[in-house]
Amino acid sequence: MAEQAASATEKDDPERQKGQLFGIDRVTEPGTLPGMLEAPEDAVTSRVHVTTYGPEHISEHTVSTVDEIVALRGKEAVLWVDISGLADIELLRGLGKAFSLHRLALEDVVNVHQRPKAEDYGEYVFIVTRTLVPDTFAETEQVSMFLGPGYLLTFHERPGDCFAAVKKRLHDAAGRIRSSGSDYLSYALIDSIIDGYFPKLEHYGESLEELEDDVVANPDPEHIKELHELKRDFLMIRRAIWPLRETINTLIRDDHSHFTDATRIYLRDCYDHTIQLIDIVETYREIANGLLDVYISSISAKLNEVMKVLTIIATIFIPLGFVASLYGMNFDGDVSPWNMPELRWAYGYPAVLSFMAVVGGGMLFCFWRMGWIGRGPARKRERRRHEE
Amino acid sequence: MAEQAASATEKDDPERQKGQLFGIDRVTEPGTLPGMLEAPEDAVTSRVHVTTYGPEHISEHTVSTVDEIVALRGKEAVLWVDISGLADIELLRGLGKAFSLHRLALEDVVNVHQRPKAEDYGEYVFIVTRTLVPDTFAETEQVSMFLGPGYLLTFHERPGDCFAAVKKRLHDAAGRIRSSGSDYLSYALIDSIIDGYFPKLEHYGESLEELEDDVVANPDPEHIKELHELKRDFLMIRRAIWPLRETINTLIRDDHSHFTDATRIYLRDCYDHTIQLIDIVETYREIANGLLDVYISSISAKLNEVMKVLTIIATIFIPLGFVASLYGMNFDGDVSPWNMPELRWAYGYPAVLSFMAVVGGGMLFCFWRMGWIGRGPARKRERRRHEE
Amino acid sequence: MAEQAASATEKDDPERQKGQLFGIDRVTEPGTLPGMLEAPEDAVTSRVHVTTYGPEHISEHTVSTVDEIVALRGKEAVLWVDISGLADIELLRGLGKAFSLHRLALEDVVNVHQRPKAEDYGEYVFIVTRTLVPDTFAETEQVSMFLGPGYLLTFHERPGDCFAAVKKRLHDAAGRIRSSGSDYLSYALIDSIIDGYFPKLEHYGESLEELEDDVVANPDPEHIKELHELKRDFLMIRRAIWPLRETINTLIRDDHSHFTDATRIYLRDCYDHTIQLIDIVETYREIANGLLDVYISSISAKLNEVMKVLTIIATIFIPLGFVASLYGMNFDGDVSPWNMPELRWAYGYPAVLSFMAVVGGGMLFCFWRMGWIGRGPARKRERRRHEE
Amino acid sequence: MAEQAASATEKDDPERQKGQLFGIDRVTEPGTLPGMLEAPEDAVTSRVHVTTYGPEHISEHTVSTVDEIVALRGKEAVLWVDISGLADIELLRGLGKAFSLHRLALEDVVNVHQRPKAEDYGEYVFIVTRTLVPDTFAETEQVSMFLGPGYLLTFHERPGDCFAAVKKRLHDAAGRIRSSGSDYLSYALIDSIIDGYFPKLEHYGESLEELEDDVVANPDPEHIKELHELKRDFLMIRRAIWPLRETINTLIRDDHSHFTDATRIYLRDCYDHTIQLIDIVETYREIANGLLDVYISSISAKLNEVMKVLTIIATIFIPLGFVASLYGMNFDGDVSPWNMPELRWAYGYPAVLSFMAVVGGGMLFCFWRMGWIGRGPARKRERRRHEE
Amino acid sequence: MAEQAASATEKDDPERQKGQLFGIDRVTEPGTLPGMLEAPEDAVTSRVHVTTYGPEHISEHTVSTVDEIVALRGKEAVLWVDISGLADIELLRGLGKAFSLHRLALEDVVNVHQRPKAEDYGEYVFIVTRTLVPDTFAETEQVSMFLGPGYLLTFHERPGDCFAAVKKRLHDAAGRIRSSGSDYLSYALIDSIIDGYFPKLEHYGESLEELEDDVVANPDPEHIKELHELKRDFLMIRRAIWPLRETINTLIRDDHSHFTDATRIYLRDCYDHTIQLIDIVETYREIANGLLDVYISSISAKLNEVMKVLTIIATIFIPLGFVASLYGMNFDGDVSPWNMPELRWAYGYPAVLSFMAVVGGGMLFCFWRMGWIGRGPARKRERRRHEE
Question: Where are the alpha helices (DSSP H) in A77-220?
Fold first, then answer.
């Protein structure tokens, strides 16, 4: 109980969810009717939040039917219908009829594994983006928008505060948001979604840097796993960001002028941000790939060290042990003088010990020359060269 | 017997077929006449299924000759001739003549290893796609279509239910399918083929995820094989999907307006799906490649562990064993006081035991300092730093 | 003697020739005159084979001078001069003059290491392709063509039957070949060259599949070599096919209409085949690269197995051996009761044996727990989880 | 104290700073107002340096208010306002108003992690470049410029001498700089920024070459770390240079003619330099990647050497040791003649020694034949072949 | 002394020079005046060689001042000024004035690390190419040309015979060189430069092939080094050739018609050669990369072999040695019948020997079954399958 509460508040330790990763687990049956609306499996109850505003006034409305929404249309310069939770298919269908939205676009709203895209339907433009789900690793959730003259419909899977900052700006009448049309509102939301990726990436950047230090200092099998998961997360984020760039580019080059020229300059700024995001993710991916090489190299180097220790010990003591065993043989010296006469020499034992010392010392010298112990002569020479 | 039956019904354990993989095993002899029609080697008896429909009526016909098909042409808004099995070359030739199809296109119908493509012959457009064969790993089968004004001819290699859902929709008059022309029917079939890839990929996604867990936890040579086969399957699927994307793009940009503008919006949806498929396959391929690195890293790390154990044991006991052997030598102490006087010391044995204990303990301490046993001092320090 | 004869007839075991591989061994000196004609080093005596044909008649001529060829020009719809062997430079020069061919093009004919290309000289188009040399691994030979109005000149390095199938079709008047112009003949030859790659690739596909099985089952250093050679062969084939695709594309987009629209449809078919070839070669290359990874992984896994066996045996018996050596020491128990009193205990020997059994058994248990022997507890648990 | 002073003057040993690397640590909160100006976290006090010049006169001014700057505008052909340090936001805002700069551009000035880019705002062009920070590894700092008719505003993060050479040229009236407009000044600054990368890269080239020698001669785990850091630095430099190339290309193709044709020729020269930079960085990256392979190969080869030594020693002495132990057994020969009769043979000991010598010698011969000792017969033969 | 002479004449063993490799070591200071002329560091004394020729006459002149050159201009159809050695900056400046060359182009002449490029200055075209320096590995030297109406100025760093063949053709009046303009001369020189790469690449091809055989037969650490150097050389050559291709393409598409249409056909031939060069270099690079994999695989396989030998010997003799040690213990059998009664058995020794033989034989059998000795049962079975 207490633990759950803790994990809910801790942003740094989200649970890595299975199945979410690959994003194709809720696809409709092949061959079914296109444009057929079905709520996604784990859809949350829909909540409608309507805001109408112009340069002078702003008002929020709680509505329950599509008719109420239609009634609000045209009252102010901009009508913003924000729907969180996709369980209420009837609502969606009603909106589709009221704003004459194409059924394929509506299908894409509930089919929550779309890649970001912008589709121009003449009357309105349909925009799909993906925003990071807070308290998860790199999970993203679909945010769909219909931008038409004087209205903007937005849909997101779960209730959340991803648009809170924009709403605040609307109420504060900060900047030009209130005096601009629905296209500027749409831009502001997209911009806020894109900006949401930066703190996440910063967080990943730190993880990567820590991992970097750890791998170089102390390669551990745990690191591979961590690295693999990081790489997977980068893949996921990249999948969300790459098409976003193309989407925004489409909006900038938009033929039906859903966006005014003034807003397009702002979109160009958004575009720069997506390029920057892509740039960062690609850099991270390259660094992560490099880290794997570092890991493998470190492990190999460590193995080499381990083997050197074993080899040094074994090659010194195995021959010496053999000599010792040799004089532990029980050949009967009484039978013949050829049988182990060394055992009966006055200085046999010291002689053997000396022989062993010479062999052991010689081997140590060999290992030193080969550079296995200390720095070896090769290194020393090199060092001298450097110092000159 | 029972086993065979089982394998036929089990979708999860198809037999991986040899030779199928590379898709070039039934090529005609070099230099032969282009456009020459020859049934593929293991062709199945052709079965013709004719459907004519308009907004009001729909009727299915069992026909045996081309003349009967020609007679049905024009009776309703759309004539759909669906042929499964390619053994009946005469039928194909007859259709070619009746609908004035180009012989190269007809050759491609029976040459069942084509890449997906769309070729515009002015009067009609020739479309080749590939659908996954059920109960196999990643085998695909060719589906060819001739789309002309008021008619659609489809050819597939084996009888199967890949178009069952579309047929049902036709009979149910669901959606706009009955009121649209043959271009919409063509779209519906392509869409159904594309959608068929999703469940397969989902299945692969699960295999990949399971394998991921296994490789990190317990790398096993079996995993390499499995991974290699997964990668090969992804290659195969990718080979089928990549050109499909280009094919649909060609259809959307179609100059001769075989497709109405209304249908093109639906094709754009298809196009999005192929991009999504490509995206998923490429992601899987990257993850699979990453897994191989993880496997190699894990194996290296395990080898390192094994070697450490060996080295620790050997470097401790080999020197101790040498000392024990030393005092197992039989030098004759009676001959001279220089010969192994230690053996005759009162506390010789305890002294040797103590010496051994010191040597062994010293080595253990060294290994601990080098971080081979326990966490080592380096790690401890690091840990402390983290906690601060 | 007998062996040589055998290897000459066996298609499956060609000798891998050195120096041929890199295809730059017969380049003219730098700075020499461009367009200078020199027979290639190992050129074969030229043989001229002239065919003239129209829809009605076809006749073959044996000619020895260029004048005879010129005399035949225009007699029938198409004049086909097929020259095998490039030793007769005078002949080439004469043809060059008679058909006003550019000297650079002529130079390319004898400079037999050209990449496939199509160069439009206005009056005629110069086409270079490469065909596989039979009974070799992946060696290719240059086939050059001059396609002009009413004539086609073809040059190949060695006499061979690569055009036999097309000649037969000419004589059989099969298909539209006799009623079409020289452009269709040119297409037919290119098509036949391209089709020649398929059986070779099929053969390679089989080798790859066999190698795949072997590498997974029993990685052997021999496999690396084989794999490396396969990869090199794929590189060679790819070098011949890639530019071929571009060449055919150039011909399709041909501005001077050397090709009629009807023939271009056939060229489009050729183009599809080259794309299919490239697709297959690239797939093979990817699989071959994957196999190398599999090889390295398998070898690593095997090394791990070997090391585990060594470690288990050594870590069990080295300590036990130490204990045995310990009680083989000759400390004199008569001197003091401290010297190896165990040797004089009544149950000393059984006690030592029991101690050894306990130590050995304990180690075995450890190894089992670490998963080195049998399946280990971790695996067992996992298995149970799976079965649930 | 003394050490700090030293590190400040030593260009070769900058401290590698953490956190700087990933360049996203000072991003504004998601959803905040676009175009909102906030000084970067560690901004330095702004210092304004104004230069006005024409072909005849040049004068420098110390100004403290925007009004003074405005007053200077138009007095001479060119007004150059150079601002170092970005702490004074009011100044920035004032300039923005005075020169009617877009707020998004101003925001980019203080958001100092922009990628190089050029944005055309009609009246003026906004250029972002990055210059290397002296005494760091591969850190870059943002330099922003507003180029308008008759004026150039430049902003850099820290006071420094990166424009010193250009200022000197202005005062010396060297070349055409004084007689050209603000566009030429802008070019001169960009050129100076680009040229600044060359010495750095030269320095890296030398490091790479030294590392190359070291890795081949004496692979050391330290090298991996060094290599990884080099690769990261190359990544950072590449991130700064790649977009720079595109930026300059944009300026060359500039539609609003902020740049005269004469200056564009100079920009083309700049463009060549960026391509050369990219070329060098990519070459370095390839060499660095190759070095990692060399490192891994060297380590593997060394491990092989170590293992050979161990194996040779162990396989020779372990069997011999076994024989010695055998005759160290204490079977009681008095009990039966079957118990170790060899011990009582007259030549038992010499026989055992001879046997051991034969076994040891045989093994050495085997190792020589396998090429483990000396050059082995295989190598010798090969050598002979080479010499022939 | 004698050695130096030898190395100077031996083309096959050039000294690999340091510092040359990265080609950026003589860059001017950042911020300096563009177009400032400074002789490169190790510039050789300039030598001017002037040739004037037309279809009828050709004459060579030794000149010392720019005025003499100007005086010769226009006397014949073509004026060719060939300058080797770049030390005489005054000469360069004089030529620049006489032919009104842009100072940026002049700067590029002395800045000898340019990438190949072609820059059109309207009146003339400035071409930079790189030629291989004879007797080096893959060093290249810059050759710059100014091609204007009726004149060609060429600059190369060191006196050499790279244009000797072209000069001979001029004197021999071979081909169309004398009757063509300066553009054809320019083409002839570029062609000669490009052809110069082929013998070098051929040489590298042979090295690669030899190395290939060696690596497969006997992997040696020396090979890695060699391979790394080969790869570096390929990188260098590629850096010189890639932009050359683009350069020639620019010349072919040349807008100001510095090249006549007749010469452009020859340039197209040049273009084909550069593509062929690129193709060869890329193939070599791929093969070299493959070789590294082969090397690593071979080393791994060898290590595996070594470890198997060690493991077999150790696992057989360590347990046997333990048994021998066991019966070397000195437990006093007189104290109790429990102490080592085996030693007093009549057949104790033969029994132990038999036991050892059984254990050793059993282990050998195990190793054979695991395929470590001989071919193992698995292989045998496989072989049988193959033979069937």
Answer: 89-98, 103-110, 164-172, 182-195, 197-217
Give alpha helix (H) positions in chain A.
2-9, 66-72, 89-98, 103-110, 164-172, 182-195, 197-217, 221-252, 261-326, 348-369, 376-387
Residue B4: band (very low, low, confident or very high) from pLDDT cuts 50, 70, 90: very low
Any chain B CB within 8 A of the CB of A306?
A: yes
Interface predicted TM-score of the whole assembly (ipTM), two decimals:
0.75
Backbone angles phi, psi at C115, to 5 degrees: -80, 150
- Helix, strand, coil shares, percent, chain C, to 5: 55, 10, 35
What distance in Å separates residue C349's CA from the closest CA in chain E?
5
Distance in Å, alpha carbon of C35 to nearest chain B alpha carbon: 33
Percent of chain B scored above 90 by pLDDT? 25
- Contact predicate B219/B305, CB 8 Å: no
In DSSP notation, B24-87 reads: -TTPPPTTPPTT-----TTPPPPEEEEEEE-SS-EEEE---SHHHHHHHTTSSSEEEEEEE---
Q: Are C183 and C259 in contact (CB under 8 A)?
A: yes
Residue B18 to residue C209, Cβ atoms within 8 A:
yes
Instruction: Output the pLDDT for position D340.
Output: 82
> Which of D234, D309, D311, D356 to mutate to probe the E interface, most E CBs <10 Å?
D311
* Full-model pTM: 0.81
Residue B13 pLDDT: 43
What confidence score (pLDDT) does residue C376 get?
57
Query: What residues 321-360 of chain E have any CB closer than 8 A to a CB of chain C?
Result: 321-322, 325-326, 328-332, 335-336, 338-340
What is the rounded distance in angstroms from the CA atom of residue E130 to the CA atom of residue E20?
A: 14
Residue type, E116: P
Q: At C231, list the tokens.
A: 């990869």
pLDDT score recorded for residue D378: 54
Length of chain D counted residue by residue: 388
End-to-end CA distance of chain C: 67
Interface of C with E in 12-51 (CB under 8 A): 18-19, 21-25, 27-36
CA distances from C57 to A180, C77, C78, C187, D257 (A): 81, 10, 11, 21, 69
Residues of chain E with C-beta less than 8 angstroms from the C-beta of C142 = none
Q: Which residues does chain B have within 8 Å of residue A237's beta carbon, measured at their own beta carbons? A: none
Q: Residue D385: exposed, middle, or buried by beta-carbon count in 10 A (0-12, 13-18, 19+)?
A: exposed
Q: Where are the alpha helices (DSSP H) in E164-260?
A: 164-172, 182-195, 197-217, 221-252
Q: Show the tokens assigned to E89.
A: 């900056």
Q: What is the pLDDT of residues D195-228, one digit of tens each?
A: 889 888 988 988 888 888 888 777 887 888 888 8
Reference A332, options D342, B123, C23; nearest CA is D342
Low-confidence ranges of chain A (pLDDT < 70): 1-36, 375-388
Q: Which amino acid, one-letter code, is at A286?
A: E
Beta bridge partners of E155: E83, E144
Q: Residues 6 or more apart from C212 whose CB is under 8 A from it?
A: B228, C287, C291
Which of B16-25, B219-228, E60-69 has the weakest average pLDDT?
B16-25
Q: Which pLDDT score is estimated for E30? A: 58
Shortest Cα–Cα distance, C57 to chain E (Å)? 39
Contact A276 D310 (CB under 8 A): no
| Six-digit token string for C94 | 């004469």
* Cβ atoms within 10 Å, residue B122: 9
pLDDT reported for residue A116: 92
Hey, what amino acid is at C129? Answer: T
Q: Does A314 touch chain D (CB under 8 A)?
A: yes
Whole-number pLDDT of residue B222: 82
Choose among E326, B193, E222: nearest CA to C350. Answer: E326
pLDDT-based confidence at C148, cuts 50/70/90? Answer: very high
Amino acid identity at E84: S
